[in-house]
Design a protein that fits this description.
heterodimer, A: about 110 residues, four-stranded antiparallel sheet, elongated, B: about 160 residues, alpha+beta
């Protein structure tokens, strides 16, 4: 099971643009590597989609190809509107979804 | 031969005439390299067209951050920021990253909304060898911007 980590500031001011850092453990198998013993290609298995939802809206998303490194790291920015959950969703080639949620605390 | 008449210029006809002699090997040899380069360029052009269509691309507005030399091609840091106010009427819709010489030139697509506040991202990618990285940004008004930057890779990633 892929392990996801997300880092956001402890609290932010309304209107502030803050950084969201995400990291998920995943091999991101490209489909180009060969098994050295059998010579067979190792099938592709990557996370191909990432979605971030905040304040009831999809605020940021990303499509990934095999050129995204193993254990994908992604940092982006979001503007603080109101306190509440920020949800993250990583989708695998085989349809498996990894979810994560953090609380955004907005003051002022 | 014709070169007696015009010693300083080589017209197509003359090149063809030379090609008919022993010079043919040299001409073919020179021809190989632009051919290989344009194959990469064609793959990238196709990948870009698939994302944005035939829209004209302007330069500017994109700041692409890449190491000059990446020791490990398996994990090359990449960052970019697009110059945009990120308001409801004027924001960056998407940014596509391409690697010219990777087996598949597509790297990733990032989709923004005005809720991002700024269009700035950092991540890590795999590069098989030294090459140009291309960033294409689509704006909410339909305009498209493009920039590219070279990275030297010491040990290639991608596997295989």
């Amino acid at each position: 099971m892929a392990k996801a980590r997300v880092k956001v500031p402890k609290s932010v001011k309304k209107g502030e643009v803050f950084q969201v850092k995400t990291l998920i453990s995943h091999k991101m198998e490209t489909g180009l590597r060969k098994n050295k013993k059998t010579g067979k290609k190792i099938p592709r298995k990557i996370i191909n989609n990432f979605v971030c939802t905040y304040d009831g809206k999809e605020v940021f998303s990303s499509d990934w190809h095999p050129a995204v490194s193993a254990n994908p790291y992604l940092a982006f920015y979001v503007k603080a509107t109101k306190s509440g959950p920020m949800n993250f969703k990583w989708t695998d080639d085989d349809g498996k979804v990894t979810d994560k949620s953090v609380n955004i605390s907005v003051s002022g | 031969m014709a070169d007696k008449l015009k010693p300083h210029t080589y017209k197509r006809r003359e090149v063809l005439a030379l090609a008919g002699t022993g010079v043919v090997v040299v001409v073919a040899g020179i021809g190989l390299f632009p051919g290989a380069a344009s194959a990469d360029a064609a793959a990238v052009a196709k990948a870009i067209k698939k994302r944005i269509g035939d829209k004209p691309m302007k330069s500017g507005r994109i700041t692409l951050e890449l190491p000059e030399i990446a020791e490990n091609g398996n994990t090359v840091p990449i960052g970019f920021e697009i110059d945009s106010p990120m308001t409801d009427n004027d924001y960056v819709k998407a940014v596509h990253i391409f690697a010219e010489k990777n087996p598949n030139p597509d790297v990733a697509t990032f989709r923004f909304t005005p809720g991002n506040g700024k269009a700035k991202v950092s991540t890590r990618m795999r590069l098989i060898k030294s090459q140009n990285i291309i960033a294409v940004a689509e704006m909410s008004d339909g305009s498209v911007y493009m920039t590219k930057k070279a990275v030297k890779v010491t040990i290639g990633g991608c596997g295989g």
